[in-house]
């Protein structure tokens, strides 16, 4: 039994592995964008989850690296295609692939990166292959579904909380869950523990996304690094908006409808008016409760794992890292 | 030992299987385009190759169906994304997905269809899974590379014959080869036979593409169903053009350069002038020889298979079906 690696150590290990892998091949128009997006960095938390789960069961982390790298490649593939669909000019402060090259390059390099993800993920003992690939296929399909729901929401004004939770589950949470389960799977964890880790990933992912929505409006700007209430200004359907919309009286509904469709508006006034409605309906607390509920469910799944408390330490550290306190 | 199924019977079997599979799920924006492109039809020759190879080794065709369907799903995924990149308005006489919906839907539905292809392909005995998925991953990556080379050629005027052959190998031939090898693989054919079938697929694919290039200019319109010399009019780098370009003297080079860059031209005159150069350089015969060479190599791989001649009958039938006689 070895000591658990810290998150920083795991991130370091992943960074070295990604830097050592050359994604450059011919034709360069196909492979340069892959190299480029992977060099943009990121915290590598998704692949770190694979390693954290594997480490929990004393598995040789070198052997779990291909699955971890595969999850990171898949994540970057989704970023490449999502950025085209969202017409995003920047990714991690740098020009997006379709802006630096063009949309065709973004589509095709993304496709190739998707295959590279599969190539990495399947590098495992054939005994685990059927379960691993089924899990990954299912997850990949759900991530596509999540992105489609998210795009639908832009023009859909009756988004229910149930559908919103489904969207963030698919768009964000399932990949965290898949990462954890993949690590546990190749480390030969019991089916029960695999499921607990999967469920932990789902609920910590949901809690994280709900927190993200709340902090966009109620977070201190310096902590969060984004424009305050950017979601309100861009008419994004967040848990705050949906909670408000579901409970609003006719006057409050008028305010929401007006500001979420207005083309000409004073940004400061829009934020103040919408936040007034949020405040009248106690939306922040309701969303915070929902977030804490998912956080608590995640914690129970972590508790129920059949490993010693010491071996859960890194995952606990991860939880603290992910969840900024919402006051 | 059962009787071989004819190509028509295999195509019928595939059609029934594809029609019985529902690709409709939520969100419908993601899945309707998948259903739509699969209903556009096509000859289903690629999946038929999976079944032909499996049938050769007396394998239960029902068990090889998922691999066959997976190859067809993959093929349709590439069509969906290629049509976006090529800005194609029509596919099989019907509106393309990105035209009927939009480019974002085409990208994301394509991605989902790609996952569906993987889901279908991996439905096999776990004993074959590692080899099958490696083959499929490699093929998928090469198909991306082929499409990238093809796009590069549009603005590249020094395309060598070697690079051209690489492009058509990757864009067209490897999927035929992969289909045949997949069928043989799950039917437990020997490694030697698997390789012969793969090589047969490569060379028959190359021969087919070279034939396609020749017929575009020299085929009778009624047999071919396309505009005569459409490739010349659209400045496509085909084996005819590349052969001519590699051998042209300075005068002939001037003619080629002029007509392949001219914006304002009389179509009839362009075809006549370019064909004059082709004729002076004996380009048709040279390309026909190259085609026949690949056809002959394909035949030797078919001969070398360690199965009885009767069991090769359907693949022979396929060869005849594919290769229209070039006079």
Provide an overview of this structure:
- The structure is a homodimer of 327-residue chains.
- Chain A has two domains: 1-166, Farnesyl Diphosphate Synthase; 190-327, Farnesyl Diphosphate Synthase, CATH 1.10.600.10.
- In chain A, a hairpin with a 2-residue loop joins strand 1 and strand 2 (94-95).
- The mean pLDDT of chain A is 95.
- Chain A starts with 6 loop residues before the first helix and ends in a 5-residue tail after the last helix.
- Chain A has 327 residues and is an all-alpha fold.
- Chain A is built from 16 helices and two strands.
- In chain A, 73% of the residues lie in helices and 1% in strands.
In short:
The structure is a homodimer of 327-residue chains. Chain A has 327 residues and is mainly α.
Annotation keywords:
16 helices; Farnesyl Diphosphate Synthase; mainly alpha; 73% helix; 1% strand; two-stranded antiparallel ribbon; globular; homodimer; 327 residues; 2 strands
Helix and strand run of chain A = HHHHEEHHHHHHHHHHHH
Number of helices of chain A: 16
Let me know the largest β-sheet of chain A: 2 strands, antiparallel
Give the beta-strand count of chain A.
Answer: 2
Write the layout of secondary structure elements.
Two copies of one chain form a homodimer.
Chain A: H1 7-20, H2 28-39, H3 45-56, H4 61-85, E1 90-91, E2 94-95, H5 97-100, H6 103-121, H7 129-153, H8 161-186, H9 191-218, H10 221-224, H11 230-233, H12 239-247, H13 250-261, H14 267-280, H15 283-303, H16 313-322
Antiparallel strand pairs in A: 1-2
